[in-house]
Amino acid sequence: MTTRSRKPSRNTSKGSEKRKTSKKPVATGKRKGSASRSKSAYPSKASGKKTSAASKAGLDRDQLLAIYRNMFLSREIDEEEIRLKAKGQIFFQINGCGHEAVCTAAAMALRPGYDWFFPYYRDRALVLQLGLTPTEMFKTGTAAADEPAGAGRQMPSHWGSVALNIVNQSSCTGSQVLHAVGCAEAWSKGHQIPELQEKIRGWRKDEIAYVSIGDGGTSEGEVWEALSSACILRLPVLFLVEDNDYAISVPVEVNTPGGSISNLLEGYHGLTVHEVDGCDPVASYQLFSEVVEGLRSGGGPVLVHAHVVRPYSHSLSDDERAYRTEKERQEEFRRDPLASFPKRLIEEKYATEEELEAIRGEVRAQVREASEVAVVAIQPDPSTVLENIYSPDFDPTDRSLESVAEPRGEAQQATMVDLINSCLREEMRRDPEIVIFGEDVADASREDALEECKGKGGVFKVTHGLQREFGNHRVYNSPLAEANIVGRAIGMALRGMKPVVEVQFLDYIWPAYHQIRSELALMRWRSNGANSCPTVIRVACGGYLRGGSIYHSQSAESLFTHIPGLRVVMPSNAVDANGLLRTAIRCDDPVIFMEHKHLYRQTYNKGTDPGPEFTVPFGKAATVRQGDALTIITYGALVQRSLIAAKALAKEGIEVEILDLRSLSPYDWESIEESVLRTSKAIVVHEDSVSWGYGAEIAARISDELFAHLDAPVRRLGALDCFVAYAPDLEEAILPQSQQVQEAVRQLASY
What we know:
Layout lengths: L35 E4 L11 H6 L4 H26 L13 H10 L6 E3 L5 H7 L3 H9 L33 H17 L16 E6 L6 H13 L3 E7 L2 E2 L2 E2 H4 L5 H4 L7 E6 L3 H16 L5 E6 L18 H10 L1 H11 L5 H23 L37 E2 L1 H15 L3 E5 L27 H5 L4 E3 L4 H13 L3 E6 L9 H8 L2 H4 L9 E6 L16 H4 L5 E3 L4 H13 L4 E6 L10 E2 L13 E4 L4 E5 L3 H13 L5 E5 L2 E3 L3 H11 L2 E8 L4 H12 L9 E5 L8 H7 L3 H12 L2
Parallel strand pairs: 1-7, 2-3, 3-4, 4-8, 7-8, 10-11, 10-12, 12-13, 13-15, 14-15, 18-19, 18-21, 21-22
Antiparallel strand pairs: 5-6, 9-16, 14-20, 17-19
């Protein structure tokens, strides 16, 4: 493609010198250690010289008219949705106006159902060109039961199609970029391990992962994390930044230093960057054709920075006249591809006004017909709202998972760390689709070091030796970026792989909480089962460390149990950890597997390796002590502290029953109910802060459903509403101790 002058960079600083537009071609040779750049003319101007541009791009008259048809179809659907919203027949509208040219061009260069697509809400023309129909689009607006994106669960313009490989989209700006990288990473596993190719969903030897965002989305940290991983791993990812100058009302120079994302990316090692007039479909198509060819040939990730316009307000909930001048808005209309491209077709004698009007007439009729079908479409049945929160194919609470341990040979007593490692090892032998990655989980990223060094294998040695056995394609380190770990895992799981990832400490999981809450747990439900991402997130949690302090001692389990779609597990002993982790790995839902650091190497919770098929069902508590005076409901590190308290109380004649919940979501209500009906008293004991803690839900349900059988109020015991301190005496005062459990039980027993 002929390189042309670049768009001047935006600079709003007073007194600063504006860059002049170069009139010379910009060199596109790739510089060592930096991103390569190419520039298309910006903005384009129709002229007689452009007659050869279409032919040079490989476009004939029929293709040019097809481009215009798709662009006009996209715009006319937006117009019809605006009319439907005014009549109350749809409930939200966000448009793709001004983005039609670059989106149509991108879709023409890619392959629906072959490549993978992670679009954003402006990509209406892209998904139309890929094959989504106007009727399907309107049905997302009317919330029809058979709309393809989620059966009425998703907003309009939140695209999804299994047949076209369009992964279900959320409203979160930029979060899908990591998924695209994970999707391409799954491809790379098939490339590295050929026997996986038949197991990875839709694997193709030269597939591409396409992902698009607006200029505002480039401010998200997850976007930069995605760019880094794509470059480090040299993945076939096509990043499209559709820059319309605004993130709702925030202009691009407020979001991006210098007002240009492509300028910022100069020097980004391993990334090829192009800049194009996204209002010119011919230049855009020519660029995408070349970019796609390079990607399919193994050229590594590419970012296309497309300058587009937004001639309408952000959405019908926004009025751009509040922050954009009339002069600026008129300039947008001038560059609008729906105004400039048909004029160009006429000037360059590819079509007459009459021929274009005939196309517009056909499209309007098509749109009206599709709209009429959608507005009378059957609405989803309210009784289906709970469907596809969890997998309908695998029930981790099935009591058949309650297996008997089958130790091999003369197995020795082992710690929780040992038996978690054993489970991971056995499951990786069983299932080649399992990959393990996270911070420090590898033995050594530089494998030659293992000839001399023993290897890291996690800060707690939980994954030690796994890389040596399974290789660095299946066990490997991630960047120090928690959202990166979870976001990539989502993309890999969407392809049918089984990521078992580690977040080093629960205290540092919060950058990933957005991915966990808004993407991981929601994917199956929002797509009505079309997409899912079963992933295991192992995370070390809890205190009682003497020195763990604020950032290595927290619990916070209630922040995960509150999320529909997640399974949350916290074992208290080595054998349960082995069986519950095996169930988590075989589960078809995302699982937060909480490993209490204090319990990793204790002697009192050791056990014998139960064998490679041992599983423990979720939602099944263990009765670790029987009694009739009252019931202690607990889990994690408080199981042992409750046992110590119970033994002391037994000397006073108070026989306490202790239930170890083991899994927190789901939890075993049946065992709680059975026990409390016998003892008539209950106390919930947990390590996390007592206020708004996990115990509040259990206590409330007991009071609600078993009130008539209670002989005393339901009590709760937890940590103070405080963070965990460094000083041992302070930590001991903050976290619940055995003596406190003993006193609380004594008071309740005497009620």
